[in-house]
Every structure is written in structure tokens, then in C-alpha cells.
């Protein structure tokens, strides 16, 4: 076996150029694979984190009927107190109680339907960080009476500027239309089209006053200290409040999970394509090596090297190729990922389009460490598969004929 | 017929015929070949090109099967062996020297000599000792760690012969071992083979066209059109 390994290793360096081509393609294959995985991962994480951090948060609580029928009457009794008590739970990072209703947002020139949130800004900004996403004006800091913060695109649709007046119209609990005038205090730009195009934020007290509600909490959004604690916190909350609808982000936005799994299958396709390309590269090269050494292999069989050893010699040679290429590829990929993880990839050139879909413009590729091991194993298995056919060809040869070919 | 004083017969062919059936044309490469070769012989198989020398050697060496007839080597009917058994049989019983491409290019002269012994699983110290001794014997001691590409054709053939010898086979088959050598190297190789034949008592069977090589043989079997034309033993 040691002799086989010696021969195989020296054979690797026998036609240096060809081996380097294979090693190079293994390096590029691994690098491309890891880069794509990291890129997609980064994409997904940024998308999901964006959705969680700026829109959905980890857990939302509603009155049991509110989701089916978002009537302004379905408030949570004692909602404020519940919000207060949740805020003192150390596992929960931030809590924002909201009043929510659907309505019309109108400027003198246009109007648009949307969701109206009545919030407590100092609580809300800790959950959705909207104060950091203000592009014009401020986040409820001015002394304007009846301030409203709306999405940037909505402002464009309504053709309003800062300080412009907008009127909100919605139904109170008796289904009477009520309205209130607000002044645009700030404009918001997030990764969520829903927020950018169709959401308005006003003070909770303003909303409840206009709607004539006393206790006006429809929704409590929770941000967890550690996202993994969801599995503990969620059931706990549910058993403590069986009358309320308590959902995690997965239930609120099932499309995120769908997106995750779609990206996953897309990745498998990519991995498959790269591996198949690698397999064919290896088959081609090793087949050439076998044909080139036809007489030599014939001689080896004639003098008593058995088929198993011939087979293994070719397989070992291929494994050596991947063992040289593999670590180099992984090293280069590691360095690239580390650097890009710090640096980020600036996609702002394309980000107009991307933002439409909810991506932020700087992407941080990310790869779990175990992925490197998977990729390395995958490449070695690929090399092995690629070696099988050439090795089989080598074994099939007939020594007398092989020795006769000139 | 066998008497106690007779040398042990290592190869015995009976009515061997070989027909190559290539597409439509059938070529009768050998017919009615009866040959007995005893231990320690130094035999040349000669004949014009196409007379069947290589075919005969391949059959004796278990690389090919006769179309009819039987061949016994060291008492075994080798045409009845399975492929894998045949390879193993060659490994332990027959040493081959071909016209060219004998050596493994990526191994040094010494590693090449040791290669078959390694396959035979001979203990390392014994293997090293044998390979060094043989390399010294044929004057290639200082070339021990050199790869075949740095050896002359004659030196390569000498390495091939001692590789065959080192594995202690029942006999050594050499198909035109001198065909690619100049006459000095050819003579040198033949002298070396003759010496090994004397010293080690090794049986040699080799094919050749070369008259000067034929002159060194102690038995000359002449083939013509696949038939043994003459078989002379010289003293
Ligand atoms: N694999 C093969 N297929 C078909 N015919 C073959 C094959 N090998 C040999 N022959 C034919 O068998 C006959 C004997 O060939 P062989 O190679 O044994 O001759 P040889 O005496 O070794 O010739 P040379 O001196 O040229 O090496 C020739 O007519 C040859 O064409
Ligand atoms: Mg021949």
C-alpha cells in the first residue's frame, strides 16, 4: 500500500501541468462553492434579520380575533399592564405595545390605503429601530402637534414633504368613520416594502383619542434577548395567556421560512452543478493519464500487479490531487470569507432593485464552520467518484494488447 | 520417460495452437507446438518476424491462452486458471523482460528492482539486501537512486533483468530484450544473463532475431510460421 501511495504521489507530479489544472479546478470549485454558499447565506440572514429587526420582531401578541378580523374593537384587555410585565422579563430585550388599524392616508393631492400604528416611540424604537432608519425629519422628536412618521415611498406617492399635512381616516369601534389631521414629522426607509409603501406611525395617545378607545393595545411586539429562547418563551407565554393569540415570526411571516427552504434547494442545485463539473474534469484528466500509461499499466499487470492494486493506484492518485487542491481551496475561501465578512459586499449599484425585495445594500457573506468540512468531504467524494471510471478502464486493459500498442 | 538423472521439467507444452480471430481474417500464429524446457536452461526462441515467438512466450508466461493444447508450468495447467489466479501465478513464478517500457518511470532503479518483491511481500531487509547485491552485480550500484529516464537503454534492460531475477521466479521470459540496444549493449546484456543463469541457476527463455545473441544460447528453438522448425542443443 505504501508503494502504491508512493507511485501515485509521484504520478501526480509526473505531468505537472495537467495535475495543476485539476488541482486548480478543485481550488476554484471549492472557492466558488463556499463563496456562493456564503453569499446566499448572507443574503438570507440579512433578509430575515431585516424582516425581524425592522418589521416583525420575534413574537407578536394579539387579541384572539384580531388576526381574522382586524377590527379596532379587538383590543387586549389590560394590554398595557401585560406589556409592562413582559418588559421586566430578562429574556425579553424590548417590548412595544401598539394600536393598529387599517385606514386611508390622504394628502391634498392623493390618498392611499395603509396600516396605521399608534405607538409609544421610546418603546417602539427599541423593537424596530425605526429611529435609525429615518431619511428625512426625525423620529417623534419635534414639537409638532399630531406628528406622523410615514414610509418614504408613501410620502412620494402622496407627494408630501416634511411638515405637510396628511389626514388619516379610519373606522372607530362603532364603524363610524373618524378622521384626524397630522403633520409629517419624519420619513422612514426600511427593507420592508410594506412599511415603505403602506404604513403610518402616530402616537398611541392620538390614535386612541380619535378612535375613542380607552384601552387601546391591539398588538404587542417582543424582541428577544436571544432568538433561540423563542422555543422556551413562546410556549410559556401561550400557557400563561391562553386567551391571546401569540405567534412567532415563523407564523407571522411564513414566507420567510419558505424563502429559507427555497434558497436551500437552489443551493443544492448549485452544489450539484459544481460537483458534476468537477467530476467530469477529473474523469477526463485521469482517463488521459490512464491512456497515456497504457503500456506501463500493461507491464504492471504482466509482472503480477493485480487488478485491485491497479485500481487503487488510480484512485489514490486522484485522491492525492484533491488532497492538494482541497486545503488550498478551503484556505483561499476562508480568507475571502473572513475578509468579506468584515468588509461586506457593497451592492448599492444594484440595491434599488434589491431593496424592492427587502434586501439591504451591504451584504455580509456568512458561512458556518461546519460547512467547510462538508465542502471538503464533498470534494473528496467527488474526486473519488471521478476516479472510479478511469480506474475501471485501467483494470479492463489486456496486458498483451497494452504491451503491443506502440 | 522421465529418469532420475533428468533435470526437472519446468515447462511442458502439448500440441499448442493459437489462432487470432481478428474480424474476418483468422491468423494461425502457432500450430502443434510441443516443447519441454528443463530447469536451468538458457534457451533462445528464434525465427523471422511473425513466426510466433511473442505468441509462444505470452502463452508460456500465462499472458495469453492457447486456442487448443495444454500448457503445464511448474506442474500446473495454467490455461485453466482464472484471471486473478493467473496474475498471482505470474507474480510468484515468472519473471518478465520486455523489449521496452519495462520499468516504472516514477520509481528509481532500486525501487524498480524491489517492486515485485514488495508485491510478493518479501521482508524489507531481505528485499533491500537482494536489490543492492544485484545492482552491484550488474555494475549499477551508483545508479541505484536514479530514475529510468536517466539510464541508457542497456542499463534499463539490465535493471529489468535483475528485477525479474530478484523475485526468484521459476524462470525468466524475455521477449527480444536486446531489440532496442546497440550491439555492444546487447552483448553485455546477454553476458550478464548468461552469468546469472550460471550463478543463480535461473532458467532463461528469450526470443531474438539477432545472430550474435543466438550464438550465446545453449539451446535454440527455431519457429517458422508457427511451427517448430528445429530444436538444437549446443554444448
Ligand atoms: N493480437 C493479435 N491479433 C491478431 N493477430 C496477431 C496478434 N498478435 C500476433 N498476431 C499475428 O500472429 C502472428 C505471430 O505474431 P507474433 O507477434 O507472435 O510474431 P513474432 O515472431 O513475435 O514477430 P516479431 O519478430 O515481429 O515480434 C503474426 O502473423 C501476427 O500478425
Ligand atoms: Mg514479437
List ligands, each type once.
adenosine-5'-triphosphate, magnesium ion
Percent strand of chain B: 25-35%
Run of helices and strands of chain B:
EEEHEEHEHHHEHEHEE
The overall pLDDT average of chain A reads: 88
The share of residues in helices of chain A is 55-70%
Describe this structure in words.
- The complex is a heterodimer of chains A (406) and B (235).
- Helices cover 57% and strands 19% of the residues of chain A.
- Chain A is of the alpha+beta class.
- In chain A, the strands form two sheets. Chain A has a six-stranded mixed β-barrel, surrounded by four helices. A two-stranded antiparallel sheet of chain A has the order 11-12.
- Chain B is α/β, with parallel strands linked by helices and 235 residues long.
- Chain B has helices spanning 53-60, 83-93, 109-119, 124-137, 153-166, 183-200, 211-214, and strands spanning 9-22, 25-38, 42-46, 68-73, 76-77, 94-97, 171-175, 203-208, 219-224, 227-233.
- Chain B has a six-stranded mixed beta sheet, sandwiched between helices. In chain B, strands 2-1-4-5 form a four-stranded antiparallel beta sheet, with helices on one face.
- Classes of the chains: A alpha+beta (406), B alpha/beta (235).
- The A-B interface holds A 3, 6-7, 10-11, 14, 295-296, 299-307, 309, 399-400, 403 and B 58, 61, 63-64, 83-84, 87-88, 90-92, 94-96, 98, 101-102, 104-107, 111, 115-116, 118-120, 163-164.
- Adenosine-5'-triphosphate (ATP) binds at residues 20, 22, 27, 29, 47, 49-55 of chain B.
SSE topology:
The complex is a heterodimer of chains A (406) and B (235).
Chain A (H helix, E strand, L loop, with lengths): L1 H11 L3 H41 L2 E5 L15 H9 L4 E15 L4 E9 L1 H8 L5 E4 L9 E5 H7 L6 E7 L5 E12 L4 H6 E5 H8 L7 E6 L5 H11 L3 E5 H4 L1 H39 L1 H9 L4 H37 L1 E2 L4 H6 L5 E2 L5 H28 L2 H6 L2
Parallel strand pairs in A: 3-8, 5-7
Antiparallel strand pairs in A: 1-9, 1-10, 2-3, 2-6, 2-9, 4-7, 5-8, 6-7, 11-12
Helix pairs in contact in A: 1-12, 2-10, 2-12, 2-14, 10-14, 12-14
Chain B lengths: L8 E14 L2 E14 L3 E5 L6 H8 L7 E6 L2 E2 L5 H11 E4 L11 H11 L4 H14 L15 H14 L4 E5 L7 H18 L2 E6 L2 H4 L4 E6 L2 E7 L2
Parallel strand pairs in B: 3-8, 3-9, 6-7, 7-8
Antiparallel strand pairs in B: 1-2, 1-4, 4-5, 9-10
Helix pairs in contact in B: 3-4, 3-5, 4-5, 5-6
The complex binds adenosine-5'-triphosphate and magnesium ion (MG).
The site of adenosine-5'-triphosphate has 12 residues of chain B, from strand 1, strand 2 and helix 1.
